[in-house]
Amino acid sequence: xxxxxxxxxxxxxxxxxxxxxxxxxxxxxxxxxxxxxxxxxxxxxxxxxxxxxxxxxxxxxxxxxxxxxxxxxxxxxxxxxxxxxxxxxxxxxxxxxxxxxxxxxxxxxxxxxxxxxxxxxxxxxxxxxxxxxxxxxxxxxxxxxxxxxxxxxxxxxxxxxxxxxxxxxxxxxxxxxxxxxxxxxxxxxxxxxxxxxxxxxxxxxxxxxxxxxxxxxxxxxxxxxxxxxxxxxxxxxxxxxxxxxxxxxxxxxxxxxxxxxxxxxxxxxxxxxxxxxxxxxxxxxxxxxxxxxxxxxxxxxxxxxxxxxxxxxxxxxxxxxxxxxxxxxxxxxxxxxxxxxxxxxxxxxxxxxxxxxxxxxxxxxxxxxxxxxxxxxxxxxxxxxxxxxxxxxxxxxxxxxxxxxxxxxxxxxxxxxxxxxxxxxxxxxxxxxxxxxx
Amino acid sequence: xxxxxxxxxxxxxxxxxxxxxxxxxxxxxxxxxxxxxxxxxxxxxxxxxxxxxxxxxxxxxxxxxxxxxxxxxxxxxxxxxxxxxxxxxxxxxxxxxxxxxxxxxxxxxxxxxxxxxxxxxxxxxxxxxxxxxxxxxxxxxxxxxxxxxxxxxxxxxxxxxxxxxxxxxxxxxxxxxxxxxxxxxxxxxxxxxxxxxxxxxxxxxxxxxxxxxxxxxxxxxxxxxxxxxxxxxxxxxxxxxxxxxxxxxxxxxxxxxxxxxxxxxxxxxxxxxxxxxxxxxxxxxxxxxxxxxxxxxxxxxxxxxxxxxxxxxxxxxxxxxxxxxxxxxxxxxxxxxxxxxxxxxxxxxxxx
Lengths: 438, 352
Known about the structure:
The complex is a heterodimer.
Chain A: H1 85-110, H2 124-132, E1 139-141, H3 147-152, H4 157-165, H5 198-211, E2 218-223, H6 230-241, E3 246-252, E4 255-256, E5 259-260, H7 274-278, E6 281-286, H8 290-305, E7 311-316, H9 336-340, H10 346-356, H11 362-384, H12 410-426
Parallel strand pairs in A: 1-2, 2-3, 3-7, 6-7
Antiparallel strand pairs in A: 4-5
Chain B: H1 21-35, E1 39-43, H2 59-63, E2 68-70, H3 75-88, E3 91-95, H4 106-113, H5 116-119, E4 129-134, H6 149-153, E5 159-161, H7 166-178, E6 183-188, E7 228-231, E8 236-240, H8 243-255, E9 259-263, E10 266-268, H9 272-282, E11 285-292, H10 297-309, E12 318-322, H11 332-335, H12 339-351
Parallel strand pairs in B: 1-2, 1-3, 4-6, 5-6, 8-9, 8-11, 11-12
Antiparallel strand pairs in B: 5-10, 7-9
């Protein structure tokens, strides 16, 4: 038989012609959006299972939505983590800082100070609130939109900006694309940029922690789009096979660049339901509800720490901005989606909750936003003293060859010598220790 | 200690104890598990059963289930998990059951393990040693015979090591495990039990008749990046590694050629000084590998020799390799770069 059937000669008998389904989002630019088919449930309606629950008894949690903050801005139900007002204000402050930072860095890229930036607008709770539920020495294996974790863990803003500018203050020696941070001191793994590779690594770290009888757990973050990678399935398999103390956080922000979540399977099932096939606990959470994010992460952390095994958490949220500074979402999705997103904005919702319980007001919010913006602005100016991308190389030539291996082998020594010879031709006035001249 | 050891004559002290390559690898793993509590071994069938080639026999029983354990059939998972373990501070020694199956783990090796030290500016390292049986000559067909070393030598940040004797296998593997960089350790499975010479129609000699099977019982290491002089000679240089060291040596002996034979042992970092010294002495260079020809590691060797030793060369550099086809099952001995192909190349080199 020929590889390609000729419809004129192929005998199909009574068999119907097959049809390929190519997923299509419900709206495109200019279209009205309709989220009425989304079943978001009621805040407080979900029960909270025991942290040692059998995954087989948790099937409903993979399809429902854990929500705490209601339309009335009050916290509802058994998932309410009952955080004290100071902690809630700290959480709100971190989220406001992330937003201010994103604004400034996005603008910095547009001003030509760096090559690239990625905002997490609308998803702040999934990193800020979730990581606040972990111990500060629990190891995190983030993807590229979890700057909130670094803010929570007190990583200095100037280090983040130095990295984004690849300047001479950049501890990563200007080697990584902006926002691909790394901080061992903050138990924050080096961000790859290759998608989902961090998921089996997190499982491996957690397995190592269990092998050593440690008490620290691991958590990883991955976008819904990249759950389609084999790495993610390997991670789920190893996590359950070895009952690893790990949390797999899937940020379902609906869009993977221009591909809607349907291309990762969302038309058929939820991402939390991926857990069921592995026999893993799965939770589906309102990702724009900071209290629900905190509560789910806390549940999973307690479960992992007590040797009850891994948890997959799907955070149902919305990527309010483009994928990155290189992306223009008006080319593929309706602008109305952001406005009409039924789960609202995570910062607004937490703010309104604090106001509702009498622990916050608009004036303080305004002051906090202003202070965050000013702090970022001042830190940016400070970081710019270390240089911005493209204005000099900021790092000596030899750093290009260092750390490929622990020791420099002969072939890299020879190539480093060539780079030095080229420097004399390309930048004859440069100082030997500079990367390049002006 | 693996079961095979029992079949061998009783050792009369280190200098006379003879073991095969499987036992040598098993000993290296055993010693490193003993010496370093951060060493762990994992892979398909490596635990209770001790590996399909028996390289990990007895290790789980001796060192426990959390030090030596079986894994799901997921090379991506095995390598990915090992990278995470390395970040924790362990020193994982994952086994990929056949080199032919390493490709699902390639992204984790190429994009993650190899670059972690660089991209994190030394905050994190990936001190893995990925062991994997490779090479053909065992009627393994196209999925149990490949020699994919040049895919790894091409990657910045990976070391590639290939032993050719029990003595080297043990000492090199110990060095690989102690090394803080990710290492691919390819084990030529055709010579696990004896030094195959390429004469497929003749009986294979067991390792115990070969002096490089005399292996000290305890710890020793062989530095990476140092080639081994197999034979001193004047007529031509032969650069080889793994199984092909023994094939090349046998052909030279058979033909009565005074060859200077180098077993490279480590492809990255390469012992360029030993190569230069040999080629400058002989003026003729033959490169032998079992892997496919185009973009094989022989291409790199040929380029290096030509660039660095051109004015010492009396003849163009010759390569003897596998053909650029999948490894055929029934035509294995037509494919294998054996005595005829090597002999023809030697004749050509010496006639120029």
